[in-house]
Amino acid sequence: MLPNIPIKWYKCHVELGAQSGLLAAIVSVAVAVSVILRGRRSRVNAFFIVFCGNLLLHFLAAFIYHFSREFIWFRIDLVAASLLPVTSLLFFGHFLWKEPKTPRKYVISAYVISSGLVTFLFTPWSDNRPTVTMVVAVVFTAMYLCAYLVYLRYRELKSQRERTRLRYLLVVMLVATTFILLGMLPGNLGFLRTWGDLVSMFFLYFLSQSLLKYRLLDIQELLGRGLVLIAVALMLSLVFGVLVLWAGVSPEVSLFHAFIASFVILILFEPLRDKVEGSTNRLLFRERHEFRGKLEDLRREIANILDLRQMTNVILDTLYESMRITQSSIYFKEDGGAGYYLVGHRGPKPPARIDVAAHRTFFEQVKKTPTVVLSETHERFLAEQSAPADSSKPPTEIQHARQVLKTLAHMKSALCIPFPSQDEILGLWNLQDDASAESYSTDEIARMIALGEQATINIENSKMFERIRERDRLAVLGEMSAGLAHEIRNPLGAIKGAAQYLDPSSVGKDASQFLEIIIEETDRLNLVVDQFLDYSRPFQARKDPTDINRILQQTTRLLSTGFNDRDIDVKIELQSDLPLVDANAPQLTQVFINLLNNAMESMPAGGRIEVRTKLRSSGFGSQSGPHRHTGAVEILVVDTGRGISPSEQERLFVPFFTTKEHGTGLGLSISQRIVEHHGGEIRVRSQEGEGTTFTVVLPYPTNTTAPAKNMEKPSKSTESSDDLLFPDKNNR
Ligand code: ADP
Questions:
Q1: Residues of the chain above pLDDT 70, percent
Q2: Is the pLDDT at 290 greater than 60, yes or no?
């Protein structure tokens, strides 16, 4: 028996060799067709298709010759092989360089040698063994030359990810070429040829994936999984082989042993796969394996953090330390939703605020794909459009992709993960790795999205917690305030009365100053108590049709001395045809006084305040909410003061939050309460060091009679209102 084994083995390998050649031919067709079907008709793709066609001819001719033994097929095979240097060098030259200057001299030499060889093959002197050896030598020289070009490019490239891609390519290419070469040499290594063919198939597939610009990291993932499967398959075949060997050849015994083998395999499969997968990932893809673990840990860790700043810092720090991110930032939605403010960042500073109106297209995209917005998707889309055959897409889509990319670049982001709640986007998380545009694999992105979902839950919980805390505080405040106010007010009145009763001239100069202080401070305390009461008292104020412009004119007039004293320039632009709003005029006056006082106090060295009104005909608030069919009047108070930091903005409307030495911290919370009581909302937009805009939006019912023509006509233009307020302004 024994002497027969090598013959069987040889036969088997010859059959296998022919079959693997045919398989390689089929794969060449498949990858070429996939590149054609994708419609990427650039030059490099055309060269790839030609290269695949050349390989197909070579494999197919060899396969047919193997069975038919017709000499013509042998000759076709030799011609196809002789053309390979040209087609392969042309393809690799264009694949590796945009302007293939480096390989030009090799391509020219290949043209000369290949055309010489092909011509020679049609002469009568070619039917001998040295010709075949010569063709084989030329083909393998060309293949190793291609590998050398890949190596040259690998050394030139700076991007770590691109280098990794080329490293893979180089290894697979060298293995395939060397296996085939060794398989062709005389000796016992003929079986290697089959393996060479198989690796070539993988190589072609890898090339086509790179051409179609599939994500590099996904290719790595594929590679990893492929390796795991091969390793598991090998181990299981080993188990099976041992058991079958033990069973011998008797049919009854082998059925029994096949059953046992299958049983063992079934038991071993999962733990073996997990083990091999774990080790492969740790050994070959360590960095990515750790990054994935980090994302997973982070998701679990932030689930226990309620403080949003802390959560932001944990996310940013942990991932920044992983070295897989060069820039990262988190934005939260502003109150009112006109923009998103920067809460934290690592790497170069992105803009402090993203305006929703200015980046409308991007936010439309976020609505469309609320899980992730990837720059590479849009870049790929635009790249496809540059090929003339593909420019069938309407220009609006191209415009859309460009705008999305512009916003991403503005935020220094390659990947933006929104924090979507039910009908709003609560925040944006941006990431970028400068080393490459394709920085994260699909699997990693999926984990980041899961992390984003956890962050969204945290934001929602924290808001709810804040609301509950606020409600509890108000309830306690309400109970305390009435009693407390009386307790304080009565003695205060007595103190002030007593102080006023004393004659300043009779107490001496120093003491009279103290008297003044006593009176001032009792007044201030009284104010705090009043505001305290206002805040805790339920709103029952009467509402009448009210002309907002008129209230604003009166308020600014009231405060004009303060403006003049502080050297503040006031500009008023009131839209003349505002409808009347159902409101309580004294309460709204209080709101505007608060806003204007705050604006004034933010500019101790003078500045500019603008008061504007305008009509918003579209509904405001949520599209399904109570204001669906109403228009709104918008009042803007803009100052050029110190601005408000993002952390202060978060607490602006919280009662008792103040940054002023003598502030009560109740002005804005009361104002917000009043405005909300009118069915409206109050928003803030601010840039530190540049100024602040408060916007009050008040709805009016759509059946409201248009402007109050019979009432005092509001000022129309800037000049007139300024003149009205500051008649002597031009002389200042
Ligand atoms: P108070 O004025 O008594 O401090 P508010 O509730 O009116 O209370 O304001 C709270 C805080 O908001 C202020 O202390 C100030 O820091 C900030 N603030 C409000 N408006 C402005 C503004 N226009 N510019 C800068 N900071 C402001």
A1: 81
A2: yes
Q: Which residue has the higher pLDDT, 228 or 608?
A: 608
- Does position 217 have pLDDT exceeding 90, yes or no? no
Q: Which residues contact 100 (CB under 8 A, 6 or more apart)?
A: 93, 94, 107
Closest residue CA from atom 19 of ligand 1: 598
Max mean pLDDT among 406-410, 506-510, 711-715 falls in 406-410
| Predicted local distance difference test score (pLDDT) of residue 17 | 57
Residue 425's beta-bridge partner residues?
420
CATH of the domain at 445: 3.30.450.40
Contact 437, 414 (CB under 8 A): yes
Region label for 711, one of left (φ > 0), alpha (ψ between -120 and 50) or beta (otherwise): beta
What's the rounded Cα separation, in Å, for the pair 605 and 493? 36
pLDDT of residue 388: 47
CA of 598 to the centre of ligand 1 (A): 5
CA–centroid distance, 491 to ligand 1, in Å, is: 30
Most confidently modeled range among 219-233, 277-291, 554-568? 554-568
pLDDT tens column, 76-107:
999 999 999 999 999 999 888 877 788 889 99
213: left (phi over 0), alpha (psi -120 to 50) or beta: left
pLDDT recorded at residue 39: 55
Q: How far apart are the C-alpha atoms of 359 and 361, rounded to whole Å?
A: 6
Best CA proximity match to 366, nearest among 410, 417, 312: 417
Q: Would you state the structure tokens that stand for residue 72, as one six-digit string?
A: 């013509």
The Cα 167–Cα 172 span in angstroms is: 9
Predicted confidence (pLDDT) per residue in 316-357, tens digit: 998 888 777 888 999 999 877 788 999 999 988 999 999 999
Cβ-based neighbours of 676, under 8 Å, separated by 6 or more: 682
DSSP 405-441: HHHHHHTT-SEEEEEE-SSSEEEEEEEE-TT-SS-S-
Q: Give 329: exposed, middle or buried? Use CB within 10 Å, 0-12, 13-18, 19+.
A: buried
d(CA 148, CA 96): 12
Choose one of 171, 198, 216: the last residue of a domain.
216
**Does residue 8 form part of some domain?**
no
Q: Which residue, 187, 216, 245, sits at the end of a domain?
A: 216
Q: Which atom of ligand 1 is nearest to the CA of 594?
A: 7
How much is the mean pLDDT over the chain? 80
* Same-domain status, 184 and 56: yes
Mutate to test the pocket of ligand 1, among 532, 658, 682 (most ligand atoms within 8 A of CB): 658
Total domains in the chain come to 5
Regarding whether 238 and 212 lie in a shared domain, the answer is no
561 CA to centre of ligand 1 in angstroms: 20
Atom of ligand 1 nearest to the CA of 658: 14
Return the ligand 1 atom nearest residue 694 CA: 23
C-beta of residue 56 within 8 angstroms of C-beta of residue 197: no
**Distance between CA atoms of residues 339 and 428, nearest Å:** 11
Start-to-end CA distance of the chain, whole Å, equals 118
Largest CA distance in the chain: 138
Determine whether 464 is exposed, middle or buried from the number of CB atoms within 10 Å of its CB (0-12, 13-18, 19+).
exposed
Range of the domain at 34: 15-216
Residue 535 and residue 529: Cα distance in Å, rounded? 10
- Cα(666) to ligand 1 centroid in Å equals 9
Spatial distance between the Cα atoms of 357 and 172, rounded to a whole number of angstroms = 50
**Higher-scoring residue by pLDDT: 19, 110:** 110
pLDDT digits (tens, 9 = 90+) for 473-503: 767 766 776 677 778 888 888 888 888 888 7
Inside any domain, residue 3: no
Q: Centre a 10 Å sphere on the Cβ of residue 372 and count the other Cβ atoms it contains.
A: 18
pLDDT one-digit tens code per residue, 42-66 = 788 888 889 989 988 988 898 888 8
The Cα 236–Cα 244 span in angstroms is 12
